[in-house]
Specification:
The complex is a heterodimer of chains A (670) and B (348). Chain A is mostly beta strands and 670 residues long. Chain A is built from seven helices and 34 strands. The relative contact order of chain A is 0.13. Chain B has 348 residues and is mainly beta. The longest helix of chain B has 19 residues. The radius of gyration of chain B is 20 Å and the shape is globular. The N and C termini of chain B lie far apart (47 Å). Classes of the chains: A mainly beta (670), B mainly beta (348). At the A-B interface, loops of A face helix 1 of B.
Chain lengths: 670, 348
């Protein structure tokens, strides 16, 4: 197969993508690189091979912040540079990822809230579908963004309303100083291939950054199907995925203080949706698949001089989602579902930050959001128009106490929501130590999704917004003891009460309809310990994150029916992950582990399978080597996923792969 | 290969343990009682089987899983008792599991069905399976457990009823068909061919035969309340309409038509349980049983003693209930079943 064909595949039919998975001669360049490795090694200096923006930097919670906000740093991202946002968050944060399996739908939820309460922003604008109000994180390649920041609870209010759990803010913003080219190729089990490339070009005034990503996997792993009688080993079928996409960013430096940039992210995703383990013997060869195209475009202007920063952005996000369910009853195909959905989002945002004297910051912003949906599932085209304004004051007193007040007002389709305030304090406990205590309180509102309002049948136009009252408290300690030991430890407690929580309920036995039913109390604790250090030849990183979350429905109805106090489904009480990274002389070993505690699958009292899914521990190990010279760099990596071949289910009767392997090669020119 | 051996070992270990310590709450042999088929949530694979012993009033949940170490599947639709066996149609898994009616141990399966709903015995070696998505009735051999053939009826199918040499098939759902779902299809069960059809109201969901041999068809009037629900009395021999009784409220959605042992009384669910005599020509205004169920779902009448079983699906996310009443409508038992209890099999 020619490289051209490989780069520009026929995207018309995902349904039988087998022809697409020919192995191509990537093995030859690999051999060449391996043969010349001795020469390269002689000139090696130690570093992890990354583009400039992927340099390893020490990470910690932002100092003097009145709320928890974490940046996913490049070390974490480097381990997931070829995978997607779902895997990155699963491996590096305590945000809970609910995944329907390799290549399948994956959503995120913070602190015991629902997936719809997580907002994902890219370059300042929400990428969630207005139909569902949530984002499929498996369709966000990590290669396409440079920064990922998690805002927990009320701190998301500056960026966006409605993120009752929190927000994930992604930024594509290349800072490369000169021309660089990086190309990487991964090959893995189950005919998985991922190619990424990035090219940076720069003149004095103009910066261009181009990224490309291609991913395909047949996902035909073996698994033991004990959901059928008799149980047997099977191959996963109809689980292939294929994504191709690119981003392009042009930045023009108008002056030292002003720049204008245009960023576009275009992506085509084709996915076959496998059936559950209980349904593999169904007749009629059912075929379920989804094709989706998105184009997200942001134009922005920045002014940044002495104590004033002004930003104006406009965006158009377009998305097409096609979903099909077909059966073949004796040859003649029957299309059971043919769902075509188009959404358009038109957004604008202006923002001003101004520092008045030392330690006194004022910010204000204005957002306009128009979302339009055309789908056969609604009665006609539906649209939602929103205007939001906010103002924020941050004041530092006596060099130790920070106060932070934010007020946001939203107007949606002509109706005002109550004011959403956020207030936070941070106090430095000891004068010369980075040891802080913080507390905050906020109120937030989440509008029903357009599906909740307009879906036929069942959509309920009388739904009220979900209301949240949230409090958080925490302690953070950061210390660099010496060049070889630095520590960051954080402990947070949170509690939120969400009233009028929307749930879909069966209405007679005709169809389901959403109602403002539940009153959810989510509370818990999060803790993280990060330890790292570096000497000339050795570096190490050790990280542990753990979350304890109790999330229950305490509504009068729940009390009356006896399910108050029970954990909501598919939210684990215990969730943890860890990372051990050790580097010596360009060789590195990286061990990540993920623990997902028991999850309820129903609201029954029973604590036995299948009302409860057992907890599982997953271990991934990678070993890599980096060669770096003046102009070139090379990284070779091998990885074992699910090292101990754990047989687990993230969602009841959804097959998951056992132990599997990846090798990858990254080449950099600068 | 090593992976296989390891898990076989593991499985042996698990089964060995299982045999050494049989959980105390599962009887080896089931005394007289009822099977309750719990549908479970669509696409979740959490259907289950409950057993209720009428004498001891003992309930066993997750019976299929406990006996067979595998889930029942995805959306268990109906149970049909025949001889020493019970046949459980698992809709979205596209299969029928056959269990021994006294041990609940799996004795075989019929797979490769598109969207099976109900099973109707024609004789010992032939049965029909209706289908929600396919326009064909599947003919199976219920003894050998294989597929014999298909009957094209041009529509999807739900409840089936055999009267003499003819099978009446309700075209309940309009899913996957352009035609209006308002027909009862008639099949000659000797030749396995479609011979006629009878027009009724939209969405015929259940049928019964009364003591005079009259066919009663209950139509809910459509998914989006297209027309008033209606109850049709048909002479099945002549295939002629005797009377059509309309429900006054277009928004009501009656289902689950049943008769008593004598074939003199009709029962159905319309938020509550209603009862009417076969000679009446109006829908009763007062319910027969009400106030028990949060979401009344299915109705079954024990043809030996006229006891009435009403299932309650609650909100589809918690284990539902089955209420047992005597023929006067007095409550006898409340049984905690599984998720969305529906079809009931009488095991006497």
């Amino acid at each position: 197969m020619s490289f051209f064909k490989f780069l520009f595949p026929d995207l018309s039919g995902v349904k039988s993508p087998e022809r697409f998975y020919h192995k191509y001669p990537v093995i030859i360049p690999l051999l060449i690189f391996l043969l010349t490795s001795n020469i390269l090694q002689a000139q090696m200096t130690f570093d992890t091979l990354q583009l400039q923006e992927m340099e390893i930097v020490s990470v910690k919670l932002e100092e003097n912040k009145t709320v928890k906000a974490t940046t996913i740093d490049s070390l974490e991202r480097s381990g997931f540079s070829q995978s997607n946002l779902a895997e990155l968050l699963e491996g590096s944060s305590v945000v809970f990822i609910k995944s329907y399996g390799r290549g399948g739908l994956a959503t995120a939820s913070f602190r015991g809230t629902a997936a719809s309460h997580t907002q994902v922003l890219w370059n300042g604008f929400q990428i969630s579908s207005p139909m569902l109000g949530q984002v499929d994180l498996s369709l966000v390649p990590n290669a396409f963004f440079d920064q990922a920041e998690l805002q927990y609870g009320g701190s998301s209010l500056e960026a966006i309303p409605g993120a009752l759990g929190g927000s994930i803010e992604l930024n594509t913003n290349s800072k490369a100083a000169g021309p660089t080219l990086s190309i990487s190729q991964m090959m893995g089990s189950f005919q998985t291939f991922i190619t990424t490339a990035a090219l940076n070009l720069r003149t004095k005034k103009l910066i261009s950054n181009t990224r490309f990503s291609f991913q395909s996997s047949k996902n035909d792993f073996d698994y033991y199907n004990n959901a059928i009688l008799p149980a047997e080993w099977m191959k996963q079928e109809d689980a292939s995925v294929r994504n191709i996409g690119f981003t392009q960013q042009f930045t023009y430096l108008i002056s030292d203080f002003q720049q204008i940039s245009f960023t576009t992210w275009n992506q085509w995703n084709d996915r076959n949706i496998p059936t559950t383990m209980t349904n593999v013997q169904q007749g009629g060869n059912p075929s379920e698949y989804q094709n989706n195209f998105s184009s997200r475009n942001v134009l922005s202007w920045n002014f940044n001089k002495s104590k004033t920063r002004i930003e104006a952005n406009a965006a158009w996000f377009h998305e097409k989602l096609l979903y099909f369910l077909e059966t073949f009853d004796e040859g003649s195909p029957d299309t059971l579902i043919d769902s075509r959905n188009t959404t358009n989002g038109y957004f604008a945002k202006a923002k001003l930050d101004r520092e008045f004297g030392k330690g006194f910051l004022f910010s204000a912003g204005l957002d306009l959001r128009i979302e339009k949906v055309s789908t056969s599932n609604y009665q006609g085209q539906k649209q939602r128009n929103s205007v939001g304004v906010y103002a924020r004051l941050e004041k530092m007193l006596w060099h130790r106490l920070s106060l932070d007040l934010l007020l946001r007002q939203e107007l949606t389709d002509g109706e005002f929501l109550p004011i959403m305030p956020f207030f936070g304090v941070n106090y430095q406990l000891l004068p010369n130590e980075d040891f802080n205590i913080r507390a905050s309180v906020s109120r937030n509102f989440h509008l029903p999704s357009l599906n909740d309002l307009y879906w036929i049948p069942g959509g309920n136009e009388d739904l009220k917004p979900e209301r949240a009252l949230e409090i958080e408290g925490g302690l953070n300690y950061s210390q660099i003891f010496n060049h070889f030991i630095s520590l960051d430890a954080d402990l947070s407690f949170f509690a939120s009460e969400i009233t009028d929580w929307i749930q879909w309920k069966p209405e007679s036995y005709q169809y389901w309809t959403p109602e403002n039913i539940a009153q959810v109390h989510a509370r818990g604790m999060e803790t993280s310990i990060h330890l790292n250090g570096k000497s000339k030849k050795i570096e190490y990183n050790f990280r542990v994150n753990y979350a304890f979350t109790q999330t229950t429905d305490e509504s009068e109805l729940a009390k009356e029916k006896g399910y108050a106090g029970q954990q909501l489904i598919y939210i684990p009480v215990h969730n943890a992950n860890g990372l051990v990274h050790f580097g010596y002389s360009g060789i590195y070993l990286r061990w990540t582990l993920n623990y997902t505690g028991e999850r309820k699958t129903t609201m029954n009292e029973s604590n036995r399978f299948p009302d409860v899914l057992p907890a599982y521990f997953l271990n991934d190990v990678s070993l890599g080597k980096v060669w770096k010279m003046k102009k070139f760099g090379l990284e070779v990596k091998g990885k074992v996923n699910n090292l101990f071949d754990v047989n687990y289910q993230a969602i009841l009767w959804r097959a998951m792969p056992g132990r599997n392997y990846e090798i990858s090669l990254r080449f950099l020119v600068n | 290969m090593r992976k296989v051996n390891l898990s076989v070992l593991l499985l042996l270990f698990v089964t060995a343990c299982h045999k050494d310590n049989p959980p105390s709450d599962i009887p080896d042999n089931l005394a007289d009682g009822i099977f309750i088929v719990n549908e479970g949530n669509f696409n979740s694979g959490n259907a289950s089987l409950t057993y209720f012993e009428t004498e001891t009033r003992k309930t066993t949940n997750q019976l299929f899983f406990k006996k067979n170490n595998a889930p029942l599947g995805d959306v268990a639709q109906s149970i049909t008792m025949h001889g020493e066996r019970a046949y459980i149609v698992v809709n979205n898994s596209g299969l029928i599991y056959v269990i021994n009616r006294r041990t609940a141990i799996n004795e075989g399966k019929i797979i490769d069905l598109v969207s099976p709903r109900q099973l109707l015995f024609i004789d010992e070696n032939k049965a029909y399976v209706s289908d929600l998505k396919s326009s064909k009735i599947t003919i199976i051999n219920p003894t050998e457990l294989n597929i014999l053939g298909k009957i094209e009826i041009g529509r999807t199918s739900e409840e089936m009823l055999k009267i003499g040499g003819e099978v009446f098939v309700a075209n309940w759902s309009s899913y996957n068909q352009a035609k209006i779902n308002n027909q009862i299809m008639v099949i000659n069960s000797l030749q396995d061919i479609l011979i006629d059809s009878i027009t009724v109201g939209i969405e015929p969901n259940s049928m019964e035969v009364d003591k005079n041999g009259m066919l009663w068809v209950l139509c809910s009037g459509g998914f989006e309340n297209t027309e008033n629900p209606s109850l049709w009395q048909i002479d099945p021999g002549e295939r002629k309409l005797i009377q059509k009784i309309e429900f006054p409220d277009i928004n009501s959605s009656p289902t689950a038509l049943e008769t008593n042992r004598e074939g003199e009384l009709l029962f159905f669910i319309d938020k509550a349980v209603f009862r009417m005599g076969i000679s009446e020509s109006e829908i009763p205004t007062q319910p027969f049983i009400q106030g028990f169920s949060e979401l009344p779902y299915q109705l079954s009448i024990n043809q030996q003693n006229n006891e009435i079983y009403l299932t309650d699906a609650l909100d589809y996310t918690r284990n539902g209930f089955v209420y047992r009443f005597n023929q006067e409508g007095q409550i006898l038992d409340t049984i905690t079943a599984g998720l969305i209890p529906g079809s009931i099999g009488f095991n006497y």
